[in-house]
Design a protein that fits this description.
Helix content is 56%, strand content 0%. With 103 residues, the protein is an all-alpha fold.
Length: 103
């Protein structure tokens, strides 16, 4: 989906009721579950499973993806979250970083 400069299109996409926006599409351990990923794919997004350190050791491509994700999310955590959220082990961002084995 290309929503560049189209706020109404993006708003419709995000509020479109995809399972990924609700609790049923989220994994309790962080990130999206298969149902949530399927919901995003149905909306035209290319989303894949998280890559753990063990999986990254077997594939250079997966390792690169994991390294990129960890760097991006650590930056988001530092810039966009409050001190309370950053230190909360049950926050979505911390769960996601754990799921991807980001130290």
């Amino acid at each position: 989906m290309n929503c560049k400069g189209d706020w109404a299109g993006w708003k419709k996409f995000a509020k479109g009721g995809g399972v990924w926006t609700r609790k049923e599409g989220q994994d309790p351990e962080g990130g999206l579950n298969e149902k949530g990923r399927a919901s995003l794919r149905a909306q035209g997004q290319n989303i894949k499973r998280p890559v753990s350190a063990k999986e990254a050791a077997r594939s250079p491509k997966a390792a690169s993806r994991r390294k990129s994700f960890c760097a991006r999310m650590k930056g988001q955590k530092a810039k966009m979250t409050s001190a309370k959220t950053a230190s909360d082990p049950n926050s979505r961002i911390n769960k996601s970083l754990r799921k991807w084995d980001c130290n």
